[in-house]
Amino acid sequence: MSLDKSMILAIETSCDETSIAILKDGKELLANIVSSQIDTHKEYGGVIPEVASRLHVENINICLDEALSKANVTYKDITLIVVTKGPGLIGALHVGLQAAKAISIAYDIPIIGLNHMAGHIYSNRYVSELKFPLLCLIVSGGHTELVLMKEEYDFEIIGETLDDAVGEAYDKVARVLGLAYPGGPIIDRLAKEGQPIYDVPYPKVEGDYNFSFSGIKTAILNLVTKLNNRKETFKNEDIAASFQDQVINILVDKVLLALEKHQVKQVLLAGGVSANSKLREVIKGEVNKKHPDIEVIIPPLWCCTDNAAMMAMAGFYSNNEPENLDFGVDPNLVLGE
After folding, report:
1. Is the entire prediction scored with pTM above 0.85?
2. Is there a contact between 167 and 141 (Cβ–Cβ < 8 Å)?
3. Pick from 177, 184, 181: which is nearest to 237 by CA?
4. Which one, out of 112, 229, 254, 334, has a CA that is 20 to 30 A from the CA of 271?
5. How many angstroms separate the first and last alpha carbons of the chain?
6. Are 185 and 171 in contact, with CB atoms under 8 Å apart?
7. Strand 134-139 versus strand 266-270 pairing type
């Protein structure tokens, strides 16, 4: 079945952002409304799933109305609904899915459910055309993956974290240092003011392209505990710099290692941690230095965190068939399955 994708309504509620986007002809982003819950979850030091679900329920109709108004369209103009069906928080995902189904039934609009991580990858379409084959490094609070794409909407995970995701490690280290949530942006900022004077382990893992960050997180905890027990003064800036330098070394090393075996035309960065200033700088510099023929694409900052614009773009290039309305969410959905 050939889907009319001339006017896509996308719904994203996988975690703590309620977002609605409207994309025309795969090129013109008419609206991208994002209602963030970060200020609420800061009080708890992390996302509380039940609170996130309730806030999605409160916000989704407001976001839908605002998106339609900004795009100057009605539901009758929508030709396809795209909704995130996983991975993510199960309650949060359900809010978006039920809204999508309600609109689909009321206006007889086909609907497709997509993987949230595909959205992160396709956020790069707002910067550049994708050239295949390509390699994408996905770095977020819940995922760290190296994905090889040999053609459009074809995903092969060649490396992944064996324990903590990189964003999760940032948040846990921030907690150890007594910093606020989310920890990633704070550590990135502090690291610019510090020096990497502390030794941080470089974990050995099975699989050439796999990652591990649990040991690094534990090493920082032990370091801070030891310094406190000895009543030694230290700067959070120096610990942040030591932690971040090693994490970025690992991420970039794995990308460069993969490029030795896989011939690609582009390297993409995707996910919330792709907003990290040091990572953006180092991955571009190192790939350009060692592989000047490979183009490095980095998503705009507005598209690094969760949003429906990326899901709309993924939907435009998706080869998925319309879903039956009995489909559900999958909080553990794997990219490519």
Report:
1. yes
2. yes
3. 177
4. 112
5. 20
6. no
7. parallel
Rounded Cα distance, 132 and 150, in Å: 6
Question: Is the sign of the CA dihedral 293, 314, 39, 89 positive or negative?
Answer: negative
Tokens 């070394």 sit on residue? 249
Mean pLDDT by 10 residues, the chain (337 residues): 92 96 98 90 81 94 98 98 97 98 98 97 97 97 96 97 96 95 95 98 95 96 97 97 98 98 98 96 98 96 94 97 94 92
Please tell me the predicted confidence (pLDDT) of residue 1.
58
Residue 319 in tokens = 């080869």
218 Cβ partners below 8 Å, 6+ apart?
none
Domains in the chain, start-ordered, CATH in brackets? 7-121+304-317 (3.30.420.40), 131-298 (3.30.420.40)
Backbone angle region of 233, left / alpha / beta, with phi > 0 → left and psi within -120 to 50 → alpha: beta
Exposed / middle / buried, residue 141 (Cβ in 10 Å: 0-12, 13-18, 19+): buried
